[in-house]
Amino acid sequence: MTDPHPTDTSRTTDVTAAADAADARKPTDLDTWDTVASLHAWLTAHQTLPPGQEVLLRVLKLSEEVGETAQAVIGATGQNPRKGHSHTWEDVEAELCDVVITAMVALRTLTPDAREVFARHLRRVAVRSLPRPQGEPAPKAE
Hints:
Helices cover 63% and strands 0% of the residues. It has five helices and no strands. Helix 2 (32-45) packs across helix 4 and helix 3 runs antiparallel to helix 4 (89-110).
């Protein structure tokens, strides 16, 4: 597998420079859902479709973002002989972030309680997936 942290910066653009500048503000997890709510509001303000279709299209947008992630992995590993190494592992990281953001906005579109829905689901996944210290009883399901 190719080094997941190559030093190639040839794909750096004004967009990534702007993202780096925003990153310098060091947002915390505490404001993540506030940012998601702002993105949701911004998208909603520019939406021209009926609300039911808005939800469907935001969920479908996930498929697009996952496809872009797959394209970046293929490009980072050089698996397309015609294109060679067309992406970096930083591109893959960015695409994965786009998947997460898109999913969070889609969840917020589906419910105003997205923060709580996500936290509750994450707890359930952690309870069923992560090992417990020996002798600790299994928590009761919610």
